[in-house]
Amino acid sequence: MSGGIQFLPPEASSLAPQVDWLFYTLLAFSGGLGLFLTALVIGYAVKYRAGSSADRSGRVARNTPLEIGWTTATLVIAFALFGWGAYIFVQRDHPPADAIEIAGLGKQWMWQFRHAGGQREIDALHIPVGRPILVTLGSQDVIHSFFVPAFRVKQDAVPGRSTRVWFTATKPGKYRLFCAEYCGTAHSQMLGTVYAMEPQDFAAWLKQEGGGQSLAGSGERLFSSLGCSGCHDGGGTVRAPNLRGVFGRPVALSNSTTVMADERYIRDSILQPNKQVAAGYDPVMPSFDGLIEESELQEVVAYIKSLSTQEGSR
Ligand code: CUA
Question: Do residues 177 and 29 both lie within one domain?
């Protein structure tokens, strides 16, 4: 990482070369087309300049094969570029199942990251190279945007919603992290550094940081201190769905539809519990909107997710 403005950031993720190929192809194509049209403009301007002896009789000549040819060619090229871009976009949107999850939170004006083991960092993100990393993003206040040019990824962190971005770093090093969405006075100072490390160095770093309570562990504590466990652990007077094994499975709703229990569903169920009520249950859960902080919400979601992964590994 060097100072000043980087016009060509290094290619440091598995996605970066693909994005660059597409970008430079588009640039070459647009540049070539632009030069060609400019040449025509200049050529004709010279040919038909005042006083030249060029033919100005205005004869209309059609060339059907040529017209069909260029219409088809541009159509094919446009669809090919679209397909290429869509392929990269879809890939960018589907994290591999074995990705390491890190909870990221944007707030005025800093980035906070928490690892599964509870290690917490501000304006810094340590990751191992060669492993897919999935950063789930939340925002405490306004829209921020997680942007690492060297990885060619950018994703908004939107209040009231959980978004995500994934990448696999390929080269150890320090890379810049920006906030790429104007978010108030100190937006320009909402910077961070991504430390891509060799896996053994990363393991050593995690160990050295300790972390104490894991993310899911903090979530479990909240789950009982906020009173969720009273209803959701069974045994209480109020009947509520048991959340063990719920994550990642389809849930039947009271309106006879089905929804996949993903992060969005869990999160909505906490903040707007009456929006999608599980079939067979009364809509009696109070909303926790305003009672739970964004970072706590991420912990509770991590806990509920862990209830399913434990199930799977048993
Ligand atoms: Cu946060 Cu701009």
Answer: yes
